Amino acid sequence: MPMAPTRSRYSKREANRGAWTPEEDQKLARVIETHGPRRWKLVAAKAGLNRCGKSCRLRWLNYLRPNIKRGNISDQEEDLILRLHRLLGNRWSLIAGRLPGRTDNEIKNYWNSHLSKKIKQKENQSKSPEQDQSQDLRNSAARMHSMVGNNGETSKTDEVMKTDFSRNEILDSFDEGPLNLEWMSRFLEMDESWFSFA
DNA sequence: AATTTGCCCAACCGCAGACTC
DNA sequence: GGAGTCTGCGGTTGGGCAAAT
User: Fold this and answer.
1) Which of A21, A70, A121, A167 has its CA 20 to 30 A from that of A48?
2) What is the pTM of this model?
3) For A128 and B16, how far is CA from C1' in angstroms?
4) Closest nucleotide over all strands to A108 (CA to C1')
5) Which amino acid residue lies closest to nucleotide C9, measuring CA to C1'?
6) Do A94 and A127 share a domain, yes or no?
7) What is the pLDDT of chain A when averaged over all its residues?
8) How many structural domains comprise chain A?
9) Residues A86, A107: one domain?
10) Is A95 exposed, middle or buried (0-12, 13-18, 19+ CB in 10 A)?
11) In a domain, A138, yes or no
């Protein structure tokens, strides 16, 4: 796709934009080491970076944070992403939270560049109702959205959540202790029965 | 060899909710 | 309680590179 010869939006303001240099990474990492990953505006200032706090936060979360895995998403992880997306929809941070070392940005990118195409292909291939998994995906996602609430929107599902338990609560409990992908996969095998709660 | 096209992914934006004063 | 600020999220953009022409 040919890029239109427009001015880069990265150059339109005084703060640094675009790719981070190794020097910037070092400065940021050093400040976070002493001050911790919070008060990002302050972190940016302390590091002497001509970047906004938001940019520093993103760089830390997606790149500098310890234990970040990069690239090579395994079949098992891909399967997990598909299943979690089926449950949670485009809630990338929640999905990423169940995949140790993966960031929401990476999952989102992977979904947009790989998995969404796969699903479209499947959708085109299987038009018969019993095989239309994409429709099932959409239905499941919709049900899940209504169960866990949609970006703060309140509805009568909130009442359901008060008396019932939410999947988020269950999934959140997985954060305690080391995550086991295989275990999570097996848990998600049960997802059909979960929907009987909805 | 040069140019065009398509893809990937890092980084940005806008918004909403949480937090602080 | 309200205003201002910070944080986190999902959507989008655009630079860089490889493949195709």
Assistant:
1) A70
2) 0.68
3) 40
4) C10
5) A93
6) yes
7) 68
8) 2
9) yes
10) buried
11) yes
